[in-house]
Every structure is written in structure tokens, then in C-alpha cells.
């Protein structure tokens, strides 16, 4: 049984949207912000790729005394962009040769966002007609909520969710059959794909309905959301099937892109060369942060792929992965950050310069990361005088963090809450967190000694025993 949540609507529909053409900038966003934002900077970010979700700042403006601002940028495909004022974040979809009018509303005063990295806010989009993309998305989300309205008071099992998903598919086909907007049609398909995937619909259904003989949509946000979920851990799973081989040996020892590609080509699901290469990129990105894979070997394969791919989007993805990977390579300076402790006091990593640090990220919602906590406590008892142990709680809620500490008073090492720094400078951003738990070992020179480091259950204590093994006295006569 699962309690199905209603889909959020991130846009509010207001007045009008005007279409125009520009010689230099082909998208203009003219906005009005609430008076509480006067004098603040508003920034617009676009996604550089949809594997790493690297964001690039494309435009910025200071909100004037009347609350107005204007942002301009150049794009070559329809896409969502992110608008930020501080850590308030809204999203709209834009396409070439449009002028958008938007409203950035006041934040909800009842919500304390001091410790949240990002807080979503609904941006109002002024639309002239019902065929504009944001307007269509709003309408689809309304239909979505109507279909799943019972979920607000009723637990739905998988069969009921599947039936409702199929009903929504049919409803959408009828309601939007005269709409020729290709991005929106794919938006519907992959919103439904993500719904079916989240509800646990079988791989055969998902592959047949949404992957097999379907175009690869590198720049479509909803397609890539589904893709990243569907193909997470895919190579490891395939390597365990009949006819597969040990993926760890293939990557860590052989370390060749052509060999990896040939291995996956035997999979009937991956006969499409473009899809197969994208699956490799998606999985190698995860392996960069998996201590069971040799980081240098993974980097080597990515470099080979970067040199040989003929697909511009794949080149950009691998380039971004390599840049992220190089920043967190063993020997590189450890990213320093500031976060709040259990008393609300701000703690900086720079406070521990000159000492070894074992850094881990956990969530109170992650069973695997919680299993590591008692083992970290054992290490603290044995090595707490030699190493600083720091744990970062990645929960969105300050309340769950405090409740966890209250329920576990014996966990008395430095346990911090991910603070309200702007996106890109929080601990989990700086360490490019892709999964929980995650561990890093930092040496006394503030460099990454192991990145990622083994968890306690993976034998990290062996590293500590070797590092802090006491020297034996030499009792041979005549030798000191």
C-alpha cells in the first residue's frame, strides 16, 4: 500500500504573454516582484546538462524600487529555467522568440526557511492563450490532481495507481489531441512514465511504452528525469544476468570504453547506439562517487568517451562530469563549508585545519545511512583523539534533525545540519552528493585523502589502523 501524493502545480496563471522576435536575445522575461524583494538581485539559471544538472547563470538584474526587473538570454531549445532570489526558487518553461511577463510573489511568512537550501515558490506567468506551454502544463497538472484526488484521504495500492495512470493517459489524449506542441506532448508522456516508474510498474511495460524505439530527448527535462531514474544502477544489474561479466573487473581493471560499450551492446534494450552511450554516461557518473569503483579508471573511461563521442550533448555531459570529478579527486583541496550544530551555532570546516577529518553525509530517512551511525560511534571511541568525525544531516527539516539528536544522545560527535547557504555552497553541493550515505577522508593538509572513502561497514577502520599504527621500538643492540 502506498499513500499517493498530489502533483504540485508550480505555476500560477495570470494575464497575458506576448510573442516577439529579437536580433540579439531571443527570450526576454519582464517581471514584477513583491515589494519585500526591492533592491535584491534576481538570477536566472539554465541547466547545462540533465545528467549532472549543472546550472549556469545566464542573466541577473537588481529589482528596482517599484519591484520591476528584466532578464534576457539566448536559447536554442525549449527548456525550464530557474529563477532565484536568495534561496527562494521558482521554475518556468521558456522557448525561443518569446517575451514573458511573470510575477515573483511574496514568500509564505508562516514558513521558516532559515535552514533550507532552496525553497520552492510559485511563479505567476502571464499568458495570452491556452496553447502557451506553461499554461498547458498548469492545465495538465490540474487534471492530474483531479484523477488522484482520492489520494488525499485514501491509501492507493499499485493496481489502483496503475488504473488511474491509464485513465489520465486516456484523458490527456482526448483533451490535448488538437495541441501540436511537441515539448508538451512529451511532457505528458514522461510525467506519466515517472508516475508509473515511481509506483513500481514493471520494467517490460516501462521499456515498451517509453524507451523502445523512442527518440532520445537529451534536452527534455521530464524525459531525462525518467531516464535517470530508470537507468540508475542499470549496468551493475545487467552484469549479474546470464551471459554478463563482473562489471567491477571490466571497469576497474580493463578500463576501456570500447570494451564497456561492446559488453552492453549484447543487451537487446541497448541496441540504439545513442541510448547505450547515454546509459554509460549516466552510470559512470554514479561510479565517480562509489568507493567500489576505481576513480582513476572511471575517469579514464569518461575521457575516452569524451574524445570519441559524436553527440554534442554527450560531450557536454562528460565534460561536466570530468570537471566535477577533478574537483573531488584524491589529493585535491577538500571543499570547505559552514553548517549549524545542534545548538544553532555556525561551525566552519576551517575550524579543524591541521587535523584529519572523517566526513559523512546521512539522512534520518535513509536506513542504510542510519546503520552506519553506531559504527561511527565505535570509531569515535577508538580514534576520536586523532581524527575529527563530522556528520552532515541532509534532511530538509530542521525538526527531524533535532529529533534524531534528541533520540540518540550517545551520538556526541560533531553532527551538523545542512545550512541555508545559497545553492552551490552548501556541504552537499560542494561534495556533489549523489547518494546517501557518503564518506570522505580529509588529511591534515586539508586535502582529500580518499574521495569517496569507505564507510565503516566497508572497512574504513583498516585504513585507520594502518595510519595510526604505533611504531615499535627497535631493541637491536647498537641501533637506536
Features:
single chain, 480 residues, alpha/beta, Immunoglobulin-like, 15 helices, 19% strand
Element layout with pairings:
Blueprint: E1 11-13, E2 18-19, E3 27-33, E4 41-47, E5 55-62, E6 68-73, E7 79-85, E8 88-94, E9 98-104, E10 119-120, E11 123-126, H1 133-147, H2 158-175, H3 182-198, H4 203-210, H5 221-230, H6 234-239, H7 247-254, H8 257-265, H9 273-287, H10 295-308, H11 312-327, E12 338-340, E13 346-348, E14 356-362, H12 367-383, E15 387-393, H13 398-407, E16 414-417, H14 427-430, E17 438-442, E18 448-450, H15 460-467
Helix pairs in contact: 1-2, 1-3, 2-3, 3-4, 3-5, 7-10, 8-9, 9-11, 10-11
Can you describe this structure?
There is one protein chain. The chain is α/β, with parallel strands linked by helices and 480 residues long. The chain has four domains: 17-126, Immunoglobulin-like (Sandwich); 139-230, no CATH class; 234-327, no CATH class; 338-467, 3-Layer(aba) Sandwich (Glutaredoxin). Helix content is 36%, strand content 19%. It is built from 15 helices and 18 strands. Strands 1, 2, 3, 6, 9 and 11 form a six-stranded mixed β-sheet that branches. The protein has a five-stranded mixed β-sheet with strand order 5-4-7-8-10, with no helix packed on it. A five-stranded mixed β-sheet has the order 16-15-14-17-18, covered by helices on one side.
Amino acid at each position: 500500500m502506498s499513500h499517493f501524493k498530489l502533483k504540485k502545480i508550480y505555476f500560477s496563471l495570470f494575464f497575458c504573454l506576448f510573442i516577439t522576435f529579437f536580433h540579439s536575445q531571443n527570450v526576454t522575461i519582464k517581471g514584477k516582484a513583491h515589494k519585500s524583494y526591492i533592491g535584491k538581485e534576481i538570477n536566472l539559471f539554465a541547466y547545462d546538462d540533465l545528467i549532472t544538472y549543472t546550472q549556469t547563470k545566464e542573466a541577473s538584474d537588481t529589482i528596482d524600487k517599484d519591484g520591476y526587473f528584466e532578464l534576457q538570454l539566448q536559447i536554442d531549445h525549449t527548456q525550464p529555467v530557474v529563477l532565484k532570489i536568495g534561496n527562494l526558487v521558482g521554475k518556468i518553461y521558456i522557448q525561443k522568440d518569446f517575451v514573458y511577463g511573470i510575477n515573483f510573489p511574496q514568500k509564505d511568512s508562516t514558513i521558516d526557511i532559515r535552514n533550507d537550501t532552496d525553497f520552492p515558490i510559485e511563479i505567476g506567468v502571464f499568458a495570452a492563450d491556452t496553447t502557451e506551454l506553461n499554461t498547458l502544463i498548469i492545465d495538465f497538472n490540474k487534471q492530474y490532481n483531479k484523477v488522484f484526488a482520492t489520494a488525499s484521504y485514501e491509501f492507493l495500492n499499485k493496481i489502483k495507481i496503475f488504473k488511474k495512470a491509464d485513465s489520465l493517459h486516456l484523458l490527456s489524449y482526448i483533451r490535448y489531441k488538437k495541441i501540436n506542441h511537441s515539448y508538451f506532448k512529451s511532457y505528458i508522456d514522461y510525467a506519466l512514465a515517472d508516475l508509473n516508474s515511481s509506483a513500481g510498474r514493471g520494467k517490460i511495460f516501462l521499456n515498451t511504452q517509453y524507451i523502445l524505439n523512442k527518440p532520445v530527448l537529451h534536452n527534455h527535462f521530464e524525459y531525462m528525469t525518467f531516464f535517470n531514474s530508470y537507468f540508475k544502477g542499470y549496468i551493475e544489474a545487467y552484469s549479474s544476468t546470464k551471459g554478463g561479466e563482473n562489471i567491477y573487473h571490466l571497469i576497474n581493471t580493463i578500463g576501456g570504453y570500447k570494451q564497456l560499450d561492446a559488453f552492453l551492446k549484447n543487451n537487446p534494450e541497448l541496441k540504439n547506439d545513442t541510448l547505450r552511450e547515454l546509459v554509460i554516461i549516466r552510470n559512470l557518473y554514479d561510479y565517480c562517487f562509489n568507493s567500489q569503483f576505481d576513480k582513476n579508471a572511471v575517469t579514464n573511461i569518461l575521457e575516452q568517451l569524451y574524445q570519441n563521442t559524436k553527440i554534442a550533448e554527450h560531450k557536454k555531459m562528460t565534460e561536466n562530469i570530468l570537471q566535477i570529478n577533478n574537483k573531488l579527486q584524491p589529493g585535491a583541496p577538500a571543499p570547505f563549508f559552514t553548517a549549524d550544530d545542534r545548538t544553532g551555532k555556525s561551525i566552519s570546516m576551517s575550524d579543524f585545519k591541521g587535523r584529519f577529518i572523517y566526513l559523512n553525509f546521512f539522512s534520518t530517512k535513509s536506513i542504510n545511512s542510519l546503520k552506519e551511525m553506531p559504527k561511527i560511534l565505535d570509531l569515535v571511541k577508538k580514534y576520536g583523539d586523532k581524527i575529527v568525525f563530522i556528520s552532515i544531516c541532509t534532511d530538509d527539516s530542521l525538526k527531524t534533525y533535532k529529533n534524531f539528536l534528541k533520540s540518540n544522545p550517545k551520538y556526541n560527535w560533531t553532527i551538523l545540519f545542512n545550512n541555508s547557504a545559497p545553492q552551490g555552497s552548501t556541504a552537499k553541493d560542494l561534495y556533489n552528493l549523489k547518494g546517501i550515505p557518503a564518506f570522505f577522508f580529509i588529511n591534515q593538509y586539508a586535502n582529500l585523502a580518499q574521495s569517496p572513502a569507505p564507510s565503516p561497514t566497508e572497512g574504513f577502520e583498516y585504513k585507520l589502523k594502518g595510519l595510526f599504527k604505533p611504531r615499535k621500538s627497535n631493541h637491536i643492540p647498537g641501533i637506536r
